[in-house]
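ok trying this again, last paste got cut off
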Amino acid sequence: MMQAASNRRRGAGAVDVVVIGAGQCGLAMSRSLSLASIDHVVLERDEVASSWRTRWDSLRLLTPNWQTRLPGCSYSGSDPHGYMTVPEVVAFLDQYARLVSAPIRTNTTVTSVSQGDAGYVVTTDRGRWRCRAVVLASGAHNVAELPAVASRLPEGARTLTAKDYRSPDQLDDKGVLVVGASATGLQLADEIQASGRQVTLAVGEHIRMPRTYRGLDIQWWLDALGILDERYDQVDDIVRARRVPSPQLIGSPERITLDLNALTARGVRIVGRLVGASDGKVQFSGSLRNHCAMADIKAARLLSRIDDWAERAELNVVAGEPERLVPTRVPDQPCLSLDLEKSGIGTVLFATGFRADYSWLHVPVLDRKGRLQHDGGVVPAPGLYALGLNFMRRRKSSFMHGVEDDVNDLSAHLVDYLLRSPRLGRLRPAV
């Protein structure tokens, strides 16, 4: 570990491995490389946990504290069934960086990664590094995904993304159209409605899920049933699986279930998926009822699977009886069009997902849409790896507690690759 940490002091321009990103994935990989005595550096454009520092103010983890862990470190506080706030997540990762003595170069922005002699050249705004392998741990939430209709909204409508949003204080007093009904969209719609602004929520495909079931957190059940450990090479359609929306969950001290029924009870208006915009109006799909019915069916199927497993396991820890969610309430006459100005809507907030930004990656491993091609995090270029992507190796890959298994797999592959690849020449000062 001391060998890797010394990198910070000597200002080397050549290492075995460059890790890009000092979030949970980059830090965990750094620990694994240090334990294997692999010389490496972690490059971070801002500071440790930078992506967490730019989330909206009220955000909490969707996973309970008892599930918050990284290799060699786990939650040790007094509230195991609570959900970490953003400042608590940042503090946890800061502590972890110190614990593993990660050789981090903060405020160092990577501007280019290209193939070079016997490896890669990583160019930053503070110099250049040569290395034999690169780990892309910069996250999957760098850029907000926007549907094509976003460019056709009326000029008078203000647009925001979930990446820009911090709190209702950013908004004027007019109504808000929130586009997207996964975890983020639901939480923002709920918060903005509670601030006194009328919210309309555009709903497409979504995954309905209770916060707790039969007295236990839903994450406990997903973990116990092995659902979170399902591997990418065990599903029929991994491309489809990686695009499944995040479940409608919220982490709150009250452990409440937040779904469309809860929102409509609070005055939120639900409409179908946003599909068009012209002449000051927006158009919605007429498939709202179908989307909600399908989400209800899948939720009931999951709960039945839990009940079957609990019965076979003869669990005596479960106090509650089997139950089912109330079917989603939808309007009898769906709204298919709205005039934003006449409806008093001043802001359209897109909670339609994110994607990774690899504009600086000059290696032919991206598809025509700019998405990284990989096989469970092993990128089709010698010595190039990725971490933290959705369902990368397991369903839990994008969660903090899913990092350890992925890092163990990929670090073993990486170490084996280094043993078989040529070494770099003499270390040189950074350019």
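PB: full thing came through this time. Residues 1-12, 426-431 have pLDDT under 50 and may be disordered.
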